[in-house]
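Posting here for the record, re: adenosine-5'-monophosphate-propyl ester.
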Amino acid sequence: MTVQHIETIPSVPGNHNLQSYESAYRSFRWEEAEKHFTWHRTGKCNMAYEAIDRHAEGALANKVALIYEDDDRKESYTFEQLSKLSNRFGNMLKGLGIGQGERIFFFMPRTPEVYVGIMGTLKIGAIVGPLFEAFMESAVTDRLSDAEAVAIVTTSKLKHRIPRDRLPHLKHVIIVDEQTEWQPGEVDFHVAMAQSSEELDITWVDREHPLILHYTSGSTGKPKGVLHVHGAMVQHYLTGKWVLDLRDDDIYWCTADPGWVTGTSYGIFAPWLNGATNLVRGGRFSPERWYRTIQDHKVTVWYSAPTAFRMLMAAGDETVDAYDLSSLRHILSVGEPLNPEVIRWGMKVYGRRIHDTWWMTETGAHMIVNFPAMDIRPGSMGKPLPGIEAAIIDDRGNLLPPNRLGNLAIRTGWPSMMRAIWNNPSKYEEYFRLSGWYVSGDSAYMDEDGYFWFQGRVDDVINTSGERVGPFEVESKLVEHPAVAEAGVIGKPDPIRGEIIKAFIALREGYAETSELLEEIRVFVRNGLSAHAAPREIEVLGKLPKTRSGKIMRRVLKAQELGLPTGDLSTIDD
Ligand code: PRX
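Prediction output follows.
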């Protein structure tokens, strides 16, 4: 591969928290960073203590920890207030007989109750399971039953997607809003909070104690529960400091929902471990409302995603000009490749660089990033964090030289690494099949100066608007529709969303292709899984390409869709 780096955007000199990447990378040891936390003295820790109570007990007690706004609510909470509220929530759970290690899910819009509830859950050593509010019944059921969740925090509107009769472990449904009729097992959040004490003895846990379970998609099988531990805090803290570059006077806004790992690691843990004021905006995306949020709250550090930046770009430069965005000091992006074009546009309209960051649900925190004090090569994800060894390896685990495409891999054993796939040890081991390495499933190369460049997924996982969708889950839902005999699902490149979901289906005997039927099938997937998993395009084929063992050959479908060579067809059925 010949590689040309024509473009570099130098760092603006300034007082960055990490001034020299090279020297930090050479001398860094995790043990040093760990001294910041209680376990260094006591052998025990708790994420919620370090994120909230430590500040509530100290100089930051009256500092605003959470600013919340949506179109109806505008609220703010200090560290001290959050500490007391999360104590109440922890006591509420205890009162329900819930204890260490049990799974509490959150299935609701990102209002302050979610943040209070997550912290309260962690305080008693229970495990948090966040879910997107967009999930429909079968997506919710799969996750709750795999995790054997005992309680869920939700709203009166969403609770209908939780089939209690199919979830024998689920004992409590905590409802955060008003409703007139209460079913057995339902708990009124506001009443129970008022009845619970604001004093709580926090449960001190080992650093390997489970913290949070994030469900994410792979190319085969149902979503997998990625389990993280309290000890991840050291990396959340450090990346908040070095990558987000958080300072005392920052107003930090991460646009991600806590249903996604970005919305927890960087929407909750990293900012609060650093004592920053964390802004949360509920409601839907709109360029005007987003810019107004930055303007009104004087947001200084802004973490978002390529899809959002592309939509903002499409909204036109006049929209930017209508707002005062001069408070912005640092902008970051995650989730999919950040187009060089978007970075150039960001320089023009925001006068700032957008810093790409690469990591995954499984890695728990940043791995490869563009630091504020580093030159950016637009299109590159940057360089590995101090303490992280990233490499490009072949399928047998051999290191590849610069500029050769291969598997992006990380040397095992960083603090925020997942510790298990829930109920599925063999899935977990697949990631570590090449001895000493975590194999990401992404393909990339490293240039001669150590910058990493993302090229694509090795498997069939689809990344649509930054969200990972497993083709198998969509295919399984498609074939549940009476008209669908078989289905193959691929990601098709799209200028705004990165990829869209395209489904190829074969119809059962007796069904004819009509636009009404295709729309019905699309709605069927949307209502069964979620809007983001519903195929935007459906094409009917007489027959799908399959291997002799009966596996749908998605790569053949994709090649045909893109007009590319289909590659090796030796295993195809006919
Ligand atoms: O393919 C990579 C892509 O998103 C995948 C991880 O998705 P998820 O677990 O949902 O977490 C995303 C946020 C942590 C990766 O395997 N991805 C993530 N960041 C980037 C990216 N692709 C290119 N550039 C990135 N910066």
